[in-house]
Amino acid sequence: MESKVSEGGLNVTLTIRLLMHGKEVGSIIGKKGETVKKMREESGARINISEGNCPERIVTITGPTDAIFKAFAMIAYKFEEDIISSMSNSPATSKPPVTLRLVVPASQCGSLIGKGGSKIKEIRESTGAQVQVAGDMLPNSTERAVTISGTPDAIIQCVKQICVVMLESPPKGATIPYRPKPASTPVIFAGGQAYTIQGQYAIPHPDQLTKLHQLAMQQTPFPPLGQTNPAFPGEKLPLHSSEEAQNLMGQSSGLDASPPASTHELTIPNDLIGCIIGRQGTKINEIRQMSGAQIKIANATEGSSERQITITGTPANISLAQYLINARLTSEVTGMGAL
């Protein structure tokens, strides 16, 4: 089996995805990225680490099979090193195994398990590694986690056999890759209140968000209504109705302060309008409350596939309303409609 991989494998490029916790990723990257650089140079594999402030990250290893095995060997030995160094400070006497989690398209998991579990049993017995295929798919994807644990050598042998299976039975149909979600939702301030926004979604106007944030930052030195403690995220920050605050809003957001209210129009495809309105108007009311803008949705016109949305309010209200509407649309389009 092994000769088959090394003979046919040299000209086959494979991609293996690993799911890691932040701490494990830190260990792989090393100080100033030195460890991952060394792994890339010595293995010849491409090693990419997903961005994000997520508790989980995806590490993608691409290259000829022999390069992938070298990269895996380096990762497995690095994790063993971490285990040994953490044990020197703890009373534990038995050494825990090294554990890696692969992310595999669900359509390939059947071949990996084999008829009646025969294949996975064979891999466990011949390599001495523990292999578990998760029963459920990872959230919002068509991939499953495959957990391998054992000694570094057992893990390397196990990965070799899994690669053979993956080469022999390529994935069927389209694969929706697993993307870890951020741990915490960033807080933005607008209209004098703090809002959390799902950090996962594409932000259509980052510059406007920055302006909104600057606006909030500049508002805090004026203690509202005799309140002296600074505003914390999530705490309501009453907005001044005075001219001073009105001027401040205009200056800090970098938007024109002279018209106190302006109007912005958007067109939205009919089939997406439902996700903005929500059940019995719950979502649109939420957006109105959060943004402080007036939002009117025109009735459907015959023969038109789009609906007109009119947003009225201060420039800051309008940009937040736009942002929230875009976040709803993005969540709908990417299938993350739970926002």
Considering the chains and any ligands shown, give keywords for the structure.
single chain, alpha+beta, 6-stranded antiparallel β-sheet, 3-stranded antiparallel β-sheet, elongated
Strand order of the largest sheet: 2-3-1-4-6-5
Q: Fraction of residues in helices?
A: 40-55%
β-strand number: 11
How much beta, percentage-wise?
Answer: 15-25%
Q: What is the helix/strand order?
A: HEHHEEHEHHEEHEEHHEHHEEH
- Our count of helices gives 12
What is the SS-derived class? Answer: alpha+beta
Unreliable segments (pLDDT under 50, ≥5 consecutive)?
1-10, 191-208, 218-259
- Note the gap between the termini: 48 Å
Helices and strands in order, then pairings?
Blueprint: H1 2-9, E1 13-21, H2 22-29, H3 34-43, E2 46-49, E3 56-64, H4 65-87, E4 98-105, H5 106-113, H6 118-127, E5 130-133, E6 143-150, H7 152-168, E7 187-190, E8 193-196, H8 206-219, H9 243-253, E9 262-269, H10 270-277, H11 282-291, E10 294-297, E11 306-313, H12 315-333
Antiparallel strand pairs: 1-3, 1-4, 2-3, 4-6, 5-6, 7-8, 9-11, 10-11
